[in-house]
Amino acid sequence: MRTSVRTTGGAGARERGRRAVSTPQRVQAPVLRVRALAKQFGDQVVVDGAGLDVPGGSVLGLVGPAGSGKTTLLAMVTGLLPPDEGTVQVLGVDAWAQHARARQLVAAMPDDDAVPDSLTGRELLIWKGLVAGLDARTAAEAAGLLLRATGLAEAEGRTVAEYTVGMRRRICLATALVRRPKLLVLDDPFAGVDEDSAATMRVVLRSFTAEGGSVLLASRSAESVCDLVCAVERGRVATGQR
Ligand SMILES: Nc1ncnc2c1ncn2[C@@H]1O[C@H](COP(=O)(O)OP(=O)(O)OP(=O)(O)O)[C@@H](O)[C@H]1O
Predict the structure, then answer these.
(1) Which helix (H) or strand (E) is 128 found in, with range?
(2) Is residue 67 within 6 Å of ligand 1 at its C-beta?
(3) Ligand 1 center to 41 CA (angstroms)
């Protein structure tokens, strides 16, 4: 896990600051930039001035307890829920002022029950590719690659309804990747997943970031696949990252 704690003052902080200046680091413009994001449902402030950056080629984990506002924050990043205040930019594209363009850059992993399970794994991926605008040949190639990467090649002809929980999670991850997004958004992706499936998913995420993709992942506890972790509490994202 990469360590980068922002300094807040004091001798220790100054020392860390000096070390940060003297250590050469790869500087990456953030793929996702969130600033002062806020959302309220009735009287309840659910996201309260949240800000964060996801650097290119990284997995950033948002970790917080149930009800801390993670899902709401993700919904504003993926363009599903308009914020009351604040900005979301993906590669400099404003997620709300340039909604359609931004949505082409971002993909969210769907919930298991949000994919049509009467399709086979292969049919599902090809269909998702076609819907995303790929031509038939590219969609079929992408489906084949993702079926192999997610360990589902042997099950590609079975309907998703026949898949185990872990297989469903893997095919859902594949559906999010089929159109090659720049930013992948995952809400509790490993919940209830067997360890073999989770390990395969982590490998898929690592190859996605190795090719320059970025991931924003929310969960209730820190995940080993994360390069950076930010704590979320009562709708606020802690400035410290580790
Ligand atoms: N559409 C909505 N209308 C009213 N309240 C909502 C709505 N969506 C979320 N909330 C409330 O906002 C709060 C934060 O919910 P959210 O799902 O964002 O938290 P979370 O951190 O993702 O929790 P979990 O880890 O359980 O998924 C909760 O109290 C929830 O009841």
Answers:
(1) helix 121-131
(2) yes
(3) 9
